[in-house]
Amino acid sequence: MWPWYERACATALRSLGCTVVEFSWCADFFKWTAGRVEPIPRSFALRLQNRLLTGPALKTLNENLIRVARAEQPDVVWLCSATHVYAKTVLQLRNLNPQPKLVAYANDNPFGKNAAYWRHFREAIPLFDHHFVYRDSNLEDLRRLGATNISLLRSYYIPGEDFRSTPGPGEERFIADVVFAGHYEDDGRLDALQDVAASGVKLNLFGGAWPANVPRDSPLRSPFAVAPVLGDEYRKAISGASIALCFLSKINHDTYTRRNFQIPAIGTFMLSEYSDDLASLYQEGVDAEFFRSRQELLDKIHFYLTNTAIRERIAAAGHRRVVEDGHDVRSRMNSFLRDAWPQFRATAPYDNYPESAAGSRHTS
Predict the structure, then answer these.
(1) Hey, what domains does the chain have and what are their CATH numbers?
(2) Mean of pLDDT values over 35-62
């Protein structure tokens, strides 16, 4: 559905020398219309089947998956966020001749608040040869339901997408002291952002579900409609701010998020909600900054807005950190292949990965 997930991984795998056959079902259920960021169901019946995870459309989806796998005879079948794939379909994939290796991955949490939506996946867990998880907490969740081979596969930044893009004339709406570009969630981020806006800081807010949840008298109300930003607009939203904030999803029990790699890759100073996990990836006050409370968030925003040289030094160090530590999508896919298909050896050079020329540079 979103190009920065499966499509980005497929592109990176091809750059490593793999032949990748993409199997997508989203276009059969959803359509994209002008003026909307989120896709909408093609019909009420498809909306209902997508919600209930049963019906003729899902039956056809599963049959098509088996048909394609039989025709292509893949070495590896990778099911990403496989909410719509029946356990009996996974069993059929296991019985193909030649038998492929079956691997699964989900960036959302199959054991979180929306666990019921993952019932087909949870039933199929013991049938996979290898599971990849987004977060450490899912390691034990999977073991408890019969998984054996499990590896952590973090999210990433995309070199050809996550680079600095300074707003130009007529794009003043992207210029701010502080930006948060992310969805609304009832986890305290609304109150924290209202504190920031009320403190006199120029705050830009982008993302889904905010208009329905921001009070009418909130300091977050602005002359610009709060909406998601994608592609170059996202780059400009992050690049146009002195400080980019990051909150961690409580619904998914996240200890990091993809923005924790995107923001430093773009070259903007990152001030993120703290977790022990993030503290193992970044050194606080050296290549990133963290907050543990609303007051600490306010204090650090005001400190770094008035200490430009320190802020820019940390932003530059954060950029070096994500590059040198291999938090890009191609490095992640190299790790994926090492665990999922150990006999495979990458045959293509790194520069085979398509990236913008700006993607390898940092501008303070």
Answers:
(1) 3-152 (3.40.50.11930), 172-324 (3.40.50.2000)
(2) 91
